[in-house]
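ok here's the first one, seq then C-alpha cells
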Amino acid sequence: MIKKKVVYCEMDFLQEFLNSYPLFEPNDESLRLVDAWMSFYQFFCKADIVLNISASEFKSLTNNSDWLRRIWKKSIDNQCGLEFEKDSFPDISLINGENADNKVLNAVFLTTKKDEICNEKAKELGVFVFNPEMAKHCNHLFCDSGTAFPDEKAKDWNFMRGLTGPKVRPPLNISNSMLVIDNYLLCDDADVDFQKKIDYNLKPIFQNLLPLRLAEDETYDISFFVGARSESSHLYDAQYNYLHTMIQKLRKDLKFSLNIFIGKQDKFHDRSIVTNNVLINSGHGFGVLRKDGETNTPTSVNIVFPFFQTKIAWCDNTYLNIIQTAKKIVDRLHQPNINCWGEYEKVNKLISYYNPPKNVSSQPVFFSIGGDDAEHRNGRFIGKIDLSQIKDYRRKTYSRK
C-alpha cells in the first residue's frame, strides 16, 4: 500500500523556500511565518520527493547546503523518498485531464509558477499546487480545523465555509475523489426522514467539499460505504437517485461517478469522509442534524489534512486504514452480503491508487549519490550507481520540449 504523499518539487522552488527561513522578530506575524515554514518543511521531509534534476546535480548542491544534506540524510533513514526525474518531470502547466494518471492526481506540486497558474491547475486537477509564497500562508493544513456540535459558532455544517473562502489557499474543495463512510446514513425507511437527513447534513457538506468543475476529461469519483438496514432494493434505488440528483443540482458543471456499497459485514466503525486531500471524522456521523435541522447530541468533528500533519499522530494511519478497508469491501462485491448501487464497475481512483496491484512496488527508489562503498541500511540497498543506467519507467511525459 502507498504510505507517503508524492511531492513533485521543482529545484528552484526548493532552493527559494529553503533560503526563505524567516528571521525571528518578536511579533505575531513572524511567529506565524516561522510556524508555517517549519510545518511545511516537516511535511516535505516525510513525503516521497521527486525532483526535476539529476542525482549528480543534487549531489553537487548538497556540498553547499546544510538543508539539502539534511533532506538527503532523511531519505537514507527512510523518513522520506528521494527520486530524480530530470527528463520526465511533469510540468504542472501542461498536465490536463487527458494525460494525468492516478499518481499525478494524488500528488502535491511545488513550483515557482505564478499564483494564477497554481490556482488554475489546482482547480482543474483537484490537487494542491504551491509556489514559495503560497507555502508561507497555509497554516490551516497543519492543524485540526474541526468543531464541536452543538456550539454557538457551529450550529450547522456551514462552519466549513471558513475553509473555502477566497483568502484560503488551498481551499477545502480542492479534490478529485471522495469516500463517504457512515453505516447509518441510509438507515431511515421513511423517504422523508432520509431526505431531511441528507438536506441538513450531506448537502451543505458537499457544497463545501466538491469543486465547481474539473478539467474537461476528468471525472470526480464519489463512493459511499454504508451498512445494510433494509431488504428493500426499491428503497436503495430511491436513495441512490436522491443523492445523484442532489449532486447534479449542486454542481451542474462537474462530471462525476457515484456508487454506493452496502454491506452487513466488514462494516466501518467510524464515520468519515475522505478526499484525496482531506479527512473528516464525525463522532455522531453525517446525520447529526435531525428533522428540525438542529441537534442536542454532543459530538465533535475533525477536519485534518493527511500527510501534512506532523503533530496529529493518528491522522495518516487513520486515512490509510479507511482506504484499505474500502478496498477490501470493493473486492468482495460479488460475495454474499455486499451489494452496490450505481456504477459498480467504476473503481474510485483514491482506492486504486493507494492499493496498487501486489506485483507493483509501492516503495520509493533510493539512490546513493556519494561514497564508493555500497551498504545496506533499513533493509534497502544503498550504494554508488552508474547514473547512465537509471531508466525512466514513466509511461507519460509532461515535460516541455
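and now the second one, same deal
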Amino acid sequence: MKTSQLKVAYLFNLIWMIALAHIIYSGLQPYPHYITGELMTADMVAIIYACAYCSLYFVAGNIFKFSHFWDKHPYWAYILLSSVLIFQLFIAAVAAMHAPPYIGAFIINTMFLLLIHFVFYPIYAISRKHLKPQKN
C-alpha cells in the first residue's frame, strides 16, 4: 500500500473512533425522561448497539480498502458503501422519536457521514483524478 492510501485509511479510522467516542460520551451522560422528567442513565447494551450500527459503514469500508476490492472495483465499492450508509440512515430515522442522547449522537454521526460520503469524497476523488500529472 502506498503511504497516501495509508493516510486516507488512518483518517477514515480516526473518524470512526471519534464517532464511537461521541456516542459513548453521549450515552454515559444522565438525561431527563421525555414524559416524567426524572434523570435516567442509558443501558450499556443500547449504547453498544448504537456503536455497532455506527461501525457498519467503517467495517465495510476497511474490508473493501484492505482487501483491494476498492482498487479493483471502485464504483461497486462506492455503491455498496452507499447502500450500507442508506441502511444506517434508515436505522437512525426509525430510532429518532423520543430518542435518548446517544441515539441523537448516532443520528448526528450518520448525517455527518452522509455529508462526507456523498459530497466531500466525490470532490476528493474527482480532484485527485484530474490533478494527476499526465503521462506523455
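notes on #2: The chain has a mean pLDDT of 90. The longest helix spans residues 101-130.
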